[in-house]
Design goal:
Length: 493
């Protein structure tokens, strides 16, 4: 360990198969001996929501079904066969983790969705956490957002009924008529909404997810439990809102205790699906982490640290170690400039995904790289600092709908992929604390007062890239692309 290593929360996401219920301490000691460190938290992937929904708080010891004991009931990992766990053993496992000072979070995935099911779900979740002694809930895949874009994933009669109740103007029959499971009618409904009420639909979803998480957080906090949520399929703030109907600001305002940011370029590099990986993927996720921090600066962000996954059949630590090493160093060293001018890491920590089946040498390899990645904070970043505006992000929703031109995130990660040195962000209201070069993307989306603030900056040069629109000051050096309409222009001040 480097003497100057800075604070970093270290979390692990693992299945029950990572432990051994034949040991007196349920395998906790052996697991930690192999890891070589004591994590701050372990998220136990029980996988199935039936773990919550079918729970009964009984005194008897009962066996848990296979898909609770390993993800989807897979039969083995590199260390052992799937074991039959009992409710009592699981409770003892959590006690053993607590004895080592480790918080235990419950993770389940979604399998179906119901109408106003959240009230029942929240009550059952609290009951389960209390029964086993969990410290909190990790709302992973499917609990914000759903498993697809909002223009095609759920336009059921129930969902559209909820949407219609929020609209002051009536909706046409093609939307409000009963569709049931008629695919043709559902597709017509979805098409009309996305063409004619897109922004209202986005707003409805953003509010709906915020209300869901408000109920969950209130229930969990009321019981002394914590709640963390996965980012929206690894998307930056704009695409999270536009594509998935999740507004990180509204989610954070519900009081969640942290966001697990899905920085999964290493895992996707081995995904055979078309489009899963390309040359920009690393910087796509790296810049996404930066922009989420810029949008919700006070939220705890834990980056998802890809290692391997037996069920999903990828193994970054053994098959792509150099890419994984680059990820560790990069994700640990992007920053936000605070209102006092100091650099704050975008990530407060990491979540090893997944943490079962790793040998002692694997853990040693990881620890060595963490020590270097999380060494002392730099005094400053020598590259350009991106200027972030909440208002510009929200203005981008309508602008993108109308023009389909490149968003701030897309411009940023393509610049970074081509070598532009950008490792920090600053909120537009904290510009007085910034120094050095500024990068301003799509300045036409900034409100007039914010644009004036940006172009009054005297701490260094300003590079502005975006459409040649809006009231921008004259510059002696600029160049434009040749692809109309909405040509991009680069201005250097």
């Amino acid at each position: 360990m480097y003497a100057t290593e800075r604070a970093c929360e270290k979390w692990i996401w693992t299945e029950l198969i990572g432990f051994d219920n034949r040991d007196e301490d349920l395998g906790v000691g052996a697991y930690l001996d192999a890891a070589g460190f004591t994590p701050d938290a372990i998220c136990l992937m029980i996988t199935s929501p039936d773990f919550i929904l079918s729970h009964e708080s009984v005194d008897a010891e009962v066996a848990l079904p296979p898909d609770f004991c390993s993800r989807d009931g897979h039969e083995f990992n590199p260390h052992r066969q799937r074991q039959v766990w009992t409710n009592r053993q699981l409770a003892r496992l959590i006690d053993a983790l607590h004895a080592r000072g480790i918080d235990a979070y419950l993770t389940v995935f979604t399998r179906f969705y119901g109408a106003y099911f959240e009230d029942y779900f929240a009550a059952k979740l609290v009951e389960v956490l209390d029964y086993y002694g969990f410290d909190g809930w990790h709302g992973a895949d499917g609990y914000g957002p759903l498993s697809g874009p909002i223009y095609e994933v759920s336009v059921s009669d129930d969902m559209v009924g909820q949407f219609a109740s929020t609209q002051e103007v009536g909706l046409p029959d093609i939307v409000t008529r009963e569709c049931g499971h008629d695919v043709e009618k559902l597709e017509a409904r979805a098409s009309w909404i996305w063409r004619h009420a897109r922004h209202e639909w986005i707003e409805f979803y953003a509010d709906r997810w915020a209300r869901f998480w408000r109920k969950m957080v209130d229930a969990l906090h009321g019981a002394g439990k914590k709640a963390v949520i996965n980012s929206a399929w690894g998307r930056a703030p704009f695409e999270s809102l536009y594509r998935y109907g999740v507004d990180y600001r509204r989610i954070v305002d519900t009081g969640v205790d942290g966001i697990i940011v899905e920085t999964v370029a290493a895992g996707l590099a081995m995904d055979p699906r078309r489009g899963a990986t390309d040359e920009t993927r690393h910087h796509d996720f790296l810049s996404m982490l930066m922009l989420i921090k810029a949008y919700v600066p006070d939220a705890k962000l834990i980056f998802l640290h890809n290692t391997h996954d037996v069920v999903e059949e990828w193994d970054a630590i053994h098959h792509l170690p150099t890419l994984l090493e680059k990820e560790i160093y990069s994700l640990a060293n992007v920053f936000q400039t605070g209102d006092d001018g100091t650099l704050r890491p975008c990530a407060d920590g990491l979540l090893v995904c997944l943490g079962d089946g790793l040998d002692a040498q694997d853990w040693r390899w990881l620890r060595d790289r963490w020590s270097l990645a999380f060494s002392a904070l730099p005094g400053r970043c020598l590259g350009a600092t991106l200027v972030w505006s909440d208002a510009a992000m929200h203005n981008q929703v309508r602008d993108f709908t109308e023009t389909r031109t490149w968003t701030v995130h897309r411009l940023l990660f393509h610049l970074m992929t081509r070598g532009a040195p950008v490792q920090s962000t600053v909120r537009v209201d904290h510009l007085d604390a910034a120094s050095g070069a500024l990068l301003v993307l799509n300045p036409h989306l900034f409100p007039a007062a914010e644009r004036e603030r940006v172009f009054s900056y005297e701490g260094g040069p300003i590079i502005a890239i975006g459409r040649a629109e809006g009231a921008l000051p004259a510059t002696d050096y600029q160049f434009e692309d040749v692809y109309p309409p909405h040509e991009l222009c680069c201005r250097v001040y």
